[in-house]
Give the backbone structure.
Amino acid sequence: MSDPKQVLADLYRTMVRIRAFENAAEVASQGGVSVYGKEAEGNAHVRGPLHLSTGQEAVPAGVCAHLRREDYLTSTHRGHGHTLAKGADLQGMMSELFGKATGFNGGKGGSMHIADFSVGMLGANGVVAAGLPIAVGAAHAQKLQQRDAITVCFFGDGGINRGPFLEALNWARVYGLPVLFVCEDNRWSATTASAPMIAGPGASARAQSMDIAGEKVDGNDVMAVYGAARKLVQEVRDGSGPRLLHAITYRVKGHVSVDPAAYRDQAELDAALKTDPIARARQHYLALAGAEARTLDAIEQAAQAEVVAALAGADAAPWPDAREAFTDIQDTGAGQWY
Amino acid sequence: MVLMTYAEAAVRALAREMETDRNVVVLGEDVGRGGIFGQYKGLQQQFGAQRVIDTPISEAAIMGAGVGMALAGLRPVIEMRVVDFALCGMDEMVNQAAKNRYMFGGQGRVPIVARMPIGIWDASAAQHSQSFESWFAHLPGVVVVCPATPQDNYSMLRAALACGDPVVYMEHKTLWGRTGDVDETVEAVLGQAQTLRTGNHLTMVSWSRQVHVCAQACARLAELGIEVELIDLRSIWPWDRDAVLRSCARTGHLMVVHEAVQAAGFGAEIAATAAEQLGCKVRRLGAPRIPVGYSPVLEAQARVDADAVVAAVRAFLK
């Protein structure tokens, strides 16, 4: 068993790196999105829809702590946290959000398509629940090729109402695939509360109806997520077939960065902020014997410095050559654009 | 040369690819018992249920899992049964398979062959009779193939598996039993048309089953003294504009004939290109914009038969 202080400090580092990234991206996106009746100003560094995972950091941190580089991961439109937690380079991510040539996707994807295939992160996705069938396909390949690796599939509570969720869970169980489904339940489906839109108890119950065992955890308690994920990941690695983790968290920000989320009660948000996963992890850490606040302070300062450097790096990075608009489309018929 | 059916040619092509590349797998409904048209006959016995995978009726998951498998290094052949059902896996095709390579900046490749048979299938009515090749021609990132003969189904399926791009592979529902000689050494180039007969009066471009209808019409037109140059386009994207324009430059007249609805069909693209490039006289002939009806009387209204082709050519050249 690893030193609990070290485990929690590592989880804390993952969470504060995500938080620092999200906060910086949020600031850099101001004026960059033309939604909700406002025109984009055109001078923001981060343009277009930016879906922040602020306040949800404990879920990717607690799950991805158990993953290896060769494991695959698929994500949602709210995917920065998953990508960072899987080990992607923060600079490459920020440069992608800035639309620069040095971004992971060379500026072709942005926030909604953030990805780092080199660490097994097969992509965020602009379509709700679209990652699930891709994840089961990746897991199917891992099983057919007898690889010692698994796939983790993050999706939201809104996604469980789409057909691909049911098709993918059924598929994973039918073929006994090495996949862990993680419902990161932030309780909002775009700008509509999820609960009135979900019949029955939700993700776990739907999984159980297909004989997929799972656990429901407080997704703002990073050690709870970590503990549940450790067990489920081990079962998946052992060849027991798919598992599902239902982590209840809360979307602190609006659907996109410029959405003030005026449609929800302030009391609901205030209550959620009291359960902030980073603050709770800090309390938890400081209660451990021999723990010192300066350890966490140093982690926070390092994360902040890393993000500041990434912002400068992304700002200084070159734009993609316009000719890149015509590359990496298809080999057959390349050049025939009209 | 071996005489075989269009379906047998596909089986033979797949078997050869599966023998040489362990990463080629098949997934779809009913493929284990050979597919509903016999286009996978014997493959599960030969290669096992791990590689010829029977699936639930879950088109989104079949297509999406194919994308995931491809990203993980396999080369999946994805069976959609009929193109009408492929619509249930459309996000997975359009937003995932076709976009993956580009939007992730070339980090991944999706070498899939998605088989989705097109066309009117006798008395199968509105949801089992459609031809959607122009939809996919409109989609950057994919190759669209419409083979008309056993030889092409053999050679083009192999080319599709080898090309490394997402391929929308559209066989025709009523060509499965059509026989023809197949030379297994012939390699097809995607994007290369084939001229089936030469003539000086008119260039006629078609593909898939409609090619055979056009061939009948051309034989009748020849008896009337009208010599038509008939081109089987074979792949819709990329399409062989050089072959078409070369012929049009000589004949000065182009008619595109397809089974799909004429309005916004791929014939419009070809005709517009010939008109823009050459100032050539152009005509399109496709189905009226009506759903395909069940009763033979109604179904016939959606077909472009040889009589219609002959009449259209005669009116055009008058």
Summary: The mean pLDDT of chain A is 96. Residues 4-28 of chain A form the longest helix (25 residues).
